[in-house]
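I am writing to request your help with a piece of structural work I have in hand. A protein sequence and the structure tokens that stand for its backbone fold form the material at issue. Please examine both parts with care and let me know of anything in them that strikes you as inconsistent. The record follows directly beneath this note.
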Amino acid sequence: QYTTHEPDFPALAKLAEQISQEVTS
């Protein structure tokens, strides 16, 4: 499980957003 205090959370969120945009296209 990823939590908001994880150091890599911003990167994971950004990656997830990019993936979601690709899937939506």
